[in-house]
Predict the 3D structure of the following.
Amino acid sequence: MTEEHADETMVASMRADAERQGADDRKVTDAPHYLARVLMANGIRNMYGVVGIPVTDFARIAQGMGMRFVGMRHEEDAVNAAAADGFITGRPAVTLTVSAPGFLNGLPALLEATVNGYPVIMIGGSSTRHVVDLEEGEYEGLDQMNYAKQFCKASLRIDRIEDIPLAVARAMHIASSGRPGAVYIDFPDDTVAQTLSQSEADRLMWTATDPAPAMVPARKSIDAALALLRQAERPLMVIGKGAAIARAEEEIREFVKKTDIPFQPMSMAKGVVPDTDPHSTASCRSIALRNADVVLLVGARLNWMLSFGQGKTWNEHVKFIQIDINPEEIENTRSIDVPIVGDIRSAMTLLNGSLEEYPFKADETWLNMLKEASAKNVAKFETREQSDQLPMSHFNALGAIKKVYNKHHEDLILTNEGANSLDDCRNIIDMLEPRHRLDCGTWGVMGCGTGYAIGAALSTGKKVLYIGGDSAFGFDGMEVEVACRYQLPITFVVLNNGGIYRGDFENLGADGDPSPLTLTYNAHYEKVLEAFGGKGYYASTPEEVERMVGEAVESGKPSFVHVQIAQYAGKESGNIGALNPKPVVGALVDSEVTMYDYATGARM
Ligand code: ADP
Ligand code: MG
């Protein structure tokens, strides 16, 4: 059944119910039933949460009425699962939390979803309003709506059952339109207990109309962009995750084909145009950015990841064209020569359409220069990926996983977190499909990957491959129980070097404790999943990695491959070590810390 079909059926059946009832107002609905009906009528299918007072019945009722409810182990992961669902499907999913602590647990991920631009609606059960407001000491009493305000696009409260359709419609519009993001809806126990006559509920019923409307940019901004591109000697398109959110892959691929423009994919935009496309500059990023003279930003912010559009990363005279749906994003770090404010699909359609009149082709010398630079780097990477060095590094372990990924790419979504496990995986594994890679995103956070994996598996029915470091996995590892309980086709792969960044740092003091960066090197992470009935594997050679990850993915069942890599594999802070201020004087500088080269294992 399609979503549209389901919505129509739902509204029609409610109307029919109303007719059957006629004036019989003795039949009532209650807030949990009504809320579930309204969410479903708005096309929301999936709810991820942790139940408890006062929303346990709401979850049971929603499930009974046909919503998919996934009982998670932590609210942060529940929000991440809903955010992944929203990112992939383009329609918000719901997170459900209990009052105070459950609600608070969800807030970091709520903010992350907003920062990243993923549509999600978090519904938080809360305690009796008037008791909370007079600070009488209510059970889990907290003014949640006001706390949530700084963590999402909008924080709303339903005080009256008859406002449920309005609250959901508001949430749909705010979460989905413009730059998508999170909406919080407070659902206090006094509202949970309210009832309404069925006929009145049906009469008040409505659903959000076009919550994610196209926003067509001004014609003159398109003309100005093409005029600037035609003057460029070394044009470059930077594709950001806004393009994935906009579902603009077809239009962007057409533009690349027609203009030969080289492109640099941001991490979560990988696959909008396949990484294997010869126009990709993924393997020669710094050369592409440093030399480009006109840059077309397509749904990518000039934030820290792009050095704020300033400094040595970029050509001194570079000019920017920026396509973004959010006008406030324009010129937030530097001047922009041509802003195009609108949605990417509309913008790219207009650009493509104008190419006949104003043809533009990227220069061949520029393209060849980039291709040569790419080829050199690819060769370097391949040597490391194919190395049979033991114990393994991130490179040869990921090189083995890549072989499995390439066989399944269309049907396999990747979620990826860690420091080196993130950076090296992004560089090594090519993405061919849009919205098939979910990672630490705009903030580079850890603890998102297992929640994303669950949301990705549930919302698509596709297989999911989680790749994380031992540190990243530890934040939200308990969600493997959810994967087993719901029999989701997720393979978890943890690259274990026994530490944060790497496992060989020494304690600089005399207390004999492990270093602050140390985790358990002689671990068996696969046993965490085995405890819940999933299948575990332990791999310590590239051959075992390929065979075991291959078998696990093929099985389509919850599975876990522990990949043991060298304790000295990895760099502190991964590829963003420059962001980590180093003490100029003091213990770290004066002390002897044994360091090994991650590639060769040699003592440095
Ligand atoms: P990345 O991290 O991949 O560089 P960012 O998250 O920094 O990407 O930037 C994505 C940008 O895309 C945001 O500024 C957001 O407003 C914008 N965006 C999101 N959806 C759309 C859309 N449908 N059309 C245009 N811009 C969009
Ligand atoms: Mg580690």
